[in-house]
Write a sequence for this structure.
């Protein structure tokens, strides 16, 4: 069979199974209002948790950064490492309470490059089953013995840590700090305790925690800081700059030795053109705003509480999440697509998440909240959700709310 015929067959199967993906075209980044495929909508699908993607200071910083060059012109190790990159790394290190940091072109590159640099044949990697795809692929490509444990099940983690030494080398434990599809936080304190007990290295992906969670000392340090853990307990900390920071790229933070090691051995850093200076300048401005404007995190927290309170009043079946990610589990792929389409017809863009992004039978609406959302927008979404569920999902009714 020809390549074209093979592709057509596989795409047809994808459509028939209800798993076909299509791009949506936005005229500009959501504020959270946006024009999507030519229609005005309010977006509840963005990871721009603090509204910094359209913050005037961040945009101005990017515009000024573009004066340094449209691109970095080479990899960081050739001549693509600019002073603005160094300033960004220093700011990230301070914000996360680490000795040093290293910027990557994307979160995918950061996770895959770091894992493959740290472990290989003869080593073990122990991963949560719901880890992000970049952690999963990094584990596969590392050629280390890969062991997985049930989501946030620390007893299961311990059983795998007991098994890991059989490989004979070092053991890396990799978890998300905040899980991107469920919105829940990993039990980091207990995970760190087990890593210390069994001599494993802990790597935490802070993609959805950096900037919106932290401690009194490190207010934007992420879920690791919120759990009271430092560099000794979590020696490898990864975070992204395309979510709460509203830009692009990612970082790994840790000891100076870790960062120097990654410069020498992380292939996704060594063999990739450096981050564009405009992006670095915008990310630097965003990280500084995060730290000096705690009211953005407070506003986000208020919006999360508002949404969950309103969902409870209407009987909406939300998952147990206190983060900006609020999943509404429907199970069936077709139900998710139908409800998402109904919401779109009412002017709301919400993520419709289906396998293989999530396990079979757990399709859901992935509702994300931002500090930029107004109370009126949240109320309007809640009303639209209640009506859409009652109209399209069997067993849902609207009375004083929606109940399963």
């Amino acid at each position: 069979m020809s390549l074209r015929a093979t592709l057509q067959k596989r795409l047809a199967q994808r459509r028939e199974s209800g798993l076909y993906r299509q791009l949506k075209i936005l005229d500009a980044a959501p504020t959270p209002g946006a024009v999507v495929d030519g229609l005005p909508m309010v977006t509840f699908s963005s990871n721009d948790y603090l509204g910094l993607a359209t913050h005037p200071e961040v945009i101005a910083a990017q515009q000024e950064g573009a004066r340094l060059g449209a691109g970095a012109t080479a990899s960081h190790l050739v001549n693509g490492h600019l002073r603005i990159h160094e300033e960004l790394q220093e700011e990230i290190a301070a914000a996360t309470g680490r000795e040093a940091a290293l910027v990557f072109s994307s979160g995918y590159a950061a996770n895959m490059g770091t894992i493959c640099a740290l472990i290989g044949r003869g080593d073990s990697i122990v991963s949560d089953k719901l880890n992000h795809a970049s952690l999963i692929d990094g584990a596969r490509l590392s050629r280390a013995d890969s062991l997985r444990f049930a989501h946030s099940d620390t007893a299961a983690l311990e059983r795998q840590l007991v098994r890991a030494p059989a490989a004979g080398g070092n053991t890396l434990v990799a978890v998300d700090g905040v899980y991107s599809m469920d919105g829940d936080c990993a039990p980091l304190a207990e995970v760190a305790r087990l890593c210390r007990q069994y001599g494993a290295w802990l790597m935490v992906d802070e993609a959805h925690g950096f900037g919106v969670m932290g401690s009194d000392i490190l207010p934007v340090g992420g879920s690791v800081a919120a759990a009271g853990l430092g560099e000794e307990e979590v020696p490898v900390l990864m975070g992204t700059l395309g979510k709460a920071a509203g830009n692009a790229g990612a970082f790994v933070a840790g000891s100076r030795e870790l960062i120097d090691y990654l410069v020498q051995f992380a292939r996704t850093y060594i063999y990739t053109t450096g981050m564009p200076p405009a992006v670095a300048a915008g990310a630097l401005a965003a990280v500084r705003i995060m730290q000096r404007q705690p009211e953005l995190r407070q506003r986000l927290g208020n919006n999360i509480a508002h949404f969950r309170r309103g969902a409870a009043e209407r009987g909406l079946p939300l998952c147990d999440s206190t983060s900006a990610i609020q999943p509404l589990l429907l199970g069936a792929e077709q139900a998710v697509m139908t409800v998402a389409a109904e919401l779109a017809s009412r002017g709301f863009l919400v993520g419709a998440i289906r396998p293989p992004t999530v396990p079979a039978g757990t399709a859901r609406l992935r509702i994300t909240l931002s500090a930029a959302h107004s109370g009126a927008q949240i109320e309007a979404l809640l009303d639209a959700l209640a009506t859409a569920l009652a109209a399209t999902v069997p067993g849902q009714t609207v009375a004083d709310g929606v109940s399963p």
User: Anything to note?
Assistant: The first helix runs from residue 3 to 16. Residues 397-404 have pLDDT under 50 and may be disordered.
